[in-house]
Design goal:
With 75 residues, the chain is α/β, with parallel strands linked by helices. The chain has one domain. It is 44% helix and 12% strand. The chain is built from 3 helices and 3 strands; from the N terminus they run αβαβαβ. The protein has a 3-stranded parallel β-sheet, with helices on both faces. It is globular and about 40 Å long.
Length: 75
């Protein structure tokens, strides 16, 4: 889906738990997530640790959006 949205002219970042699948489907900007059952968090962490983890992922994704890419890139 990310590839099709980009084809329409909208930049996307694919946050994913299984990077090879993202590469196979053709996503250009790929940010690895935490784990399959909890891609954007970790229930074993405290509330504050979770907040830091999520913020880090979002900031990485925003940085990826600002980066011009030719082809696929993992951030």
């Amino acid at each position: 889906m990310a590839k099709e949205i980009e084809r329409a002219g909208v930049l996307t970042v694919h946050i994913c738990t299984i990077v090879p699948i993202s590469k196979t489907v053709g996503a250009n900007r790929i940010v690895p997530a935490v784990a399959i059952p909890h891609p954007l968090g970790d229930p074993t962490k405290s509330r504050e640790e979770e907040k830091v983890l999520r913020r880090k992922l979002v900031e990485r994704a925003l940085g990826a959006m600002k980066t011009k890419v030719d082809g696929q890139r993992i951030f």
